[in-house]
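Support reply, case 0932

Customer input (verbatim):
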Amino acid sequence: MHTANEPLELALLYHLNSPVPKSYVKRVPATELRYLPDAPFLELPPAPRDNLLSELLARRSSVRSFEHQVMPLVSLAQLLDAGCGLNGLREVDNQCYEARNSPSAGGLYPLEVFVSTQVVEGLVSGLYHYEPRGHGLHWVNDSVPTDFIEPFLQQDYIVNANALFVFTSVFMRSMGKYGARGYRFALLEAGHQAENICLMAGQLGLDSLCIGGFHDLSLNAMLGIDGQRHAAIYCVAVGRKG
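Our regenerated output:
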């Protein structure tokens, strides 16, 4: 059990003590968890769905089987750009900030994105780190999606995925300004970037699966990060549905 005295330690206290549970409690029916079940109810008009975003939202679903097909390199580029690519500069209160395709508290962007690839046209299969500044990849090691099955608790759905995106957080980027609250921001921002990638996958005719269950120590070791000040927090697999 870990103890905490400072904001970073407080965040780590939760992070390191929230592993995947070894067993699950009995499910409670959703009807028993409703908020204000007896309150007056106002029915809203139907939401128009004749627009591109609604079509993408309808297409996005979690798939658990991918087909062994080649992904064009430009598709991988579009997915990474959608997640956290730069789209200009913004000036706020006489300060210049990077603008990206996903929001970040204070424009601090605590997240990094690693991507494990296989059968991507023109790209050596393996694990890369994405650099938004310059829009390029750094080689990390030769780990392909299949190598992540064990740290993903034997979830072999990813075996034929073309790209496995792993979102990591350098916590002090946010916590240096926001204290322990910065840990929450990192988790929220991983959700922003993951959804952007899932929607872009839908636009490209691809499919996706978001994954939050993994063995932290093993996954962080594969990425070559310490798992404390810099740790994996979320993942998305992308490919074509099998």
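We compared this against your earlier run and they match. Two observations from our side: The chain is about 30% helix and 25% strand. Helices lie at 7-16, 52-59, 73-84, 172-178, 181-203, 216-223. Please reopen the case if you see a mismatch on your end.
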